[in-house]
Amino acid sequence: MVRKTKEEAEKTRKDIIESARQVFHRHGVTRSTCEKIAKEAGVTRGAVYWHFQDKAEIFLAMRADVFAPMIERTDAILFSEAFDNPLDAIEGSLKEFFRVLDDCNVVREVFEIMISRCEYVDEFSSIQEEVGRPAYHFLEKIERVYVRAAEKGFLHPGIAPHAAARDTWAFTSGLLHLLLGCQKDTELEKQIPEMITTHMALRRKA
Questions:
Q1: What is the residue-averaged pLDDT of the chain?
Q2: At what angle do helices 161-180 and 86-103 cross, to 10 degrees?
Q3: What CATH number should be reported for the domain whose range is 60-201?
Q4: pLDDT for 26-67, tens place per residue?
């Protein structure tokens, strides 16, 4: 009985997170309420508050559900020992990130919510730093890989690892914002792998 209750509670929590994503994407975070989320999930408002303190906590849980598996996948490529050239690992990791965005509507919707459907004011002003933290972690990780590429003689000698990392960070962020501003199945989506290859080619030692 206890196990069943825990399983039911976990299912309810997941249903709330899934419903919140749909409500956030449909109405925008500011116009979304816990009442709307409860209605979408088919639960009471009390059930929502039993699992989550407020809307901001639901938002962070929604983000974590998507980010954790995505980061695990891209990091597995970024730090893989299968690549002799660390620049190949960066290129593969970037391509995997955008491939997941293209393949998985849930992941794409969460990024759309974070970037274009959420105003980081009022109760959300305190979580803006937390929301942006994965981007800075990404910068730190690719800089470490660029340092390895330089040490192994693969990075163009005129480019410092720190500068290369910040450039790739800005390139990825810009490409992400451009992509989310377009409809799916556009020419941009088809060109992304080649754009990433070109970006990395400019950093490779001749």
A1: 92
A2: 10
A3: 1.10.357.10
A4: 999 999 999 999 999 999 999 999 999 999 999 999 999 999
Q: What is the CATH number of domain 1-52?
A: 1.10.10.60
Confidence of residue 128 (pLDDT cuts 50, 70, 90): confident
Give the amino acid at 94: L
Q: Beta partners for 204? A: 155
What end-to-end distance do the CA atoms of the chain give, in Å? 66
Burial 166-185 (b: 16+ CB within 10 A, else e): ebbbeebeebbeebeeeeee
The CATH 1.10.357.10 portion of the chain extends over 60-201
Distance of CA 168 to the CA centre of its chain: 16
Task: State the SS3 of the chain.
Answer: CHHHHHHHHHHHHHHHHHHHHHHHHHHCCCCCCHHHHHHHHCCCHHHHHHHCCCHHHHHHHHHHHHHHHHHHHHHHHHCCCCCCCHHHHHHHHHHHHHHHHHHCHHHHHHHHHHHHCCCCCHHHHHHHHHHHHHHHHHHHHHHHHHHHHHHCCCECCCCCHHHHHHHHHHHHHHHHHHHHCCCCCCHHHHHHHHHHHHHHHCCECC
User: Is 120 a residue whose pLDDT tops 90?
Assistant: no
